[in-house]
Description:
alpha/beta, Alpha-D-Glucose-1,6-Bisphosphate, Chain A, domain 3, 4 domains, 36% helix, 21% strand, globular, magnesium, EC 5.4.2.10, Phosphoglucosamine mutase
Amino acid sequence: MAAKYFGTDGVRGRVGTAPITPDFVMRLGYAAGKVLTKSWSSSAKPTVLIGKDTRISGYMLEAALEAGFAAAGVDVMLAGPVPTPAVAYLTRALRLSAGVVISASHNPYHDNGIKFFSASGNKLPDAVEAEIEAELEQPMDCVSSEKLGKARRLDDAQGRYIEFCKSTFPSDLDLRGMRIVVDCAHGAAYHIAPHVFHELGAEVITIGNKPDGLNINEGFGATAPEALSRSVLANKAQIGIALDGDADRLVMVDAAGRIYNGDELLYVMVKDRLAAGAVPGAVGTLMTNMALEVAFKKMGIGFARAKVGDRYVLETLQERGWLLGGEGSGHLLCLDKHTTGDGIVSALQVLSALKRAGLSLADMTADIRLYPQVLINVKIPAGFDWKTNPGMQAEKAAVEKALGDSGRVLIRPSGTEPLIRVMVEAQQADVAQTMARRIADKVTA
């Protein structure tokens, strides 16, 4: 059965519009409290950690969640503004029953969302989300007064997480002599990320570190890396690091101001690991650039594509027993370092790779060139089924034959609009454009 509230990354929407309203979020906290603690075997009362990013709506939604959990008899620890991966880490490290993040990640300030982590620091499986949705259909109740949950502040959340991040960087290396610009997107890492890199020895220049509740992701961060590029050039820095609002994405910039996306950074991490030993495989998504697939094949490394979304990358990694994966958007996973995507930890893996190799980002990626990608959004008439449309399928087959091993075709329906997205990759941009247009034109043919 399709989920009613949960998407690929929790429950998300515009604040004040269902489901991101105080009453619903209180009910969500109650329902989650009932489900997540059902199998809690400890004699101590179940405890849930709540963290948030810097959106102004976080105060309201935090209070609503706290009330819902308390009504279900669950204690709450409040971490304040911390990155999403910090909640995953702290939930596991403190042996709590679950973790909750109030964030809409890279979205603008007027959106917000709720995402959950299990006691092991992993995102909830679909089956557990379905249980929470089923519980939401039941009337909200309240335990008796003596069983109500209590709330307390976790005062050292930031310090604990800073130390964890530093522990993922090799103890025999440091960042001395490096000037790094860190862009925090006016988000949850504004008071954390600069300290991590500084304490490892770097000279740190910070931008996007003045959140006011309304400016998260606005003109800064991984979704707007041009500001980082300008700052790296202006400050003559060796490297730039851009996170998004909840710091689970990473984009980097080299000394020349060139921007490197998640595909290129995944390549750097895999290449570094390969120099130290065997790498059985890496996971991307349907949107991962074909150049990675070709490069990994030449390197003798397996490659698998998951559905779009870091949770699906994680699932595929776990199924295959591999460690490294990611998305072009900057979600990167190193499962021997953390249970979830973490922008700061991923940046440290890239920096350690550069340090070990004695190379710049440009040098480390000189042997891979991303294929040009052309994406055309095509409006579809009511009832149009591209999967069975003979004209479109024939054209798709003809394009794939013409491209051979030098390109690929991906067609995906939009989940929210009457559109299909036609994407073609090829070694030459003009070929990709021509081939994508050929397929798109068949929609109305």
